[in-house]
Amino acid sequence: MGTTQLEPVPEPKYWHLRNLLGQALDTEFSVGEVLPNERDLAARFGVARATLRQALEQLELEGRLQRRRGVGTTVAPPRVGVAVGTRRHDWPGTADDVWQPADCVLAAPPAAVADALGTGRDEPVHTVRRSRGTHGLPVAAELLYIAPSSVPDLTAIDAPSGAARARAVLRELQRGELEGQESAVELGSAGAEDAKELDRLPGAPVLVVTTRYLAGGRTAALSVATYRADTCRLTFGDSGDVEIHHGPQTRAS
Amino acid sequence: MGTTQLEPVPEPKYWHLRNLLGQALDTEFSVGEVLPNERDLAARFGVARATLRQALEQLELEGRLQRRRGVGTTVAPPRVGVAVGTRRHDWPGTADDVWQPADCVLAAPPAAVADALGTGRDEPVHTVRRSRGTHGLPVAAELLYIAPSSVPDLTAIDAPSGAARARAVLRELQRGELEGQESAVELGSAGAEDAKELDRLPGAPVLVVTTRYLAGGRTAALSVATYRADTCRLTFGDSGDVEIHHGPQTRAS
DNA sequence: CAGTGGTCTAGACCACAGG
DNA sequence: CTGTGGTCTAGACCACTGA
Questions:
Q1: A174 touches chain B (CB under 8 A)
Q2: Which GO terms describe its molecular function (chains A, B) (predicted)?
Q3: Residue of A252, B53, B73, B199 with fewest CB within 10 Å of its CB?
Q4: Structural fold of domain B13-75
Q5: For residues B26 and B157, what is the distance between their CA atoms, to the nearest angstrom?
Q6: pLDDT tens digit string along B62-104?
Q7: Where in chain A are all domains bearing CATH 1.10.10.10?
Q8: pTM (2 decimals)?
Q9: Residue of B nearest to A82 (CA)
């Protein structure tokens, strides 16, 4: 039964290293503390720097480490819970200070978005760019597509674009009746534009939340929001937060 | 796809390569098709194999490629939408053929789980292991923790463990009244055990869905499910599917 | 068996942060 | 400037698949 034995096929070094480091993080380091640099760590474990980096990459993906070029590797705080899809049947921006509108233009959206909105492929829609922060740190960037028919009374706005116009469009959108919404979450990587806004490098892992807002029997608006996967835990549900932090790696070797 | 040019832009090579390959996937390849092997591709683009691999890694993370050792790299089908958190206020396994119970034991859970369930840290709970598949492929592995008090009438079961017992526990659980549920989604990496079950290598990216089931004013059960991040799109919401496949990379360079 | 992707090495140089 | 992480190279060998 429970015998410890040498594996006939040893597990990869980077994986073993990840487990060792993860254990060390639990016992010997506290949040915010800086680790030794990669070259020292690699030497200490007797592996090449690339191998050590592969282990650090894993831990960063799991939200346990934070690496910044020119600075160093630090122990990351627990992921922040970010409410997504609570307050069901609420239009975006209803009681919001978390989202900060940045811009709004009238432009033709990607074809897939146009199809979902039921607008023509070359028909311009309101495109709102917003960003979301928590504790002063950026966590999400969003692109909100709103069919013109959903915000009919957009008369008194003279600004053709900019944050002021974004706020006006959102205000107008909230006058409509929202019937439902549905979301999907998938893994993606930050494009150059989002990466800059999220203070990450291009290709950084993000959780892409696509939400469709239903009103008047059709899709009235559509949001594509990208959340930093390293720092965020997205919460859905009927009530408050889910506080289990069982750790993002599920069952170790 | 026969190009060889890589201008000296400040953009990292692997990122540029990712964009080139992604574009090629859209225009010159169809789902299931196998790409040239990594050594050939690297030579064709005039980069080291490691650099080429970094680009492929990105595309695999975004669900556009599938790589299998000993076989090759193929163009992945679009991600499958997996319903999570629909049919609100339903116990797990209510009308399920998607989840397949594998085992059930009575054991002390991790400390964080015991705290959430409100049981003592050394108090054993029912621990059900299930797996979920779609189109014959495994997509998720779950660990379900159920407080013994939530399934009081577990008398007629003689099996101390196994799939039969798992089914019995789930059946008993559904006799209770579920008041609500809340979920959280975060990025993690598959442990050795999950990796095998999901047919991936250890460290593979997974979406970890933690769900708390509320009944009788407290947490009656708790689920930690890990979904393959490369093949799954998790859907939440009031109604059907969200079909936008805007592509997991949000806005390219 | 031959061919594939997965792991690993030991270097090099670059981009950036901070003093 | 020094020190950090980020990128990149050109190899090597291993583990696995399928013929």
A1: no
A2: DNA binding; DNA-binding transcription factor activity
A3: B199
A4: Arc Repressor Mutant, subunit A (1.10.10)
A5: 54
A6: 999 999 999 999 999 999 999 987 666 778 877 666 888 999 9
A7: 13-75
A8: 0.89
A9: B184
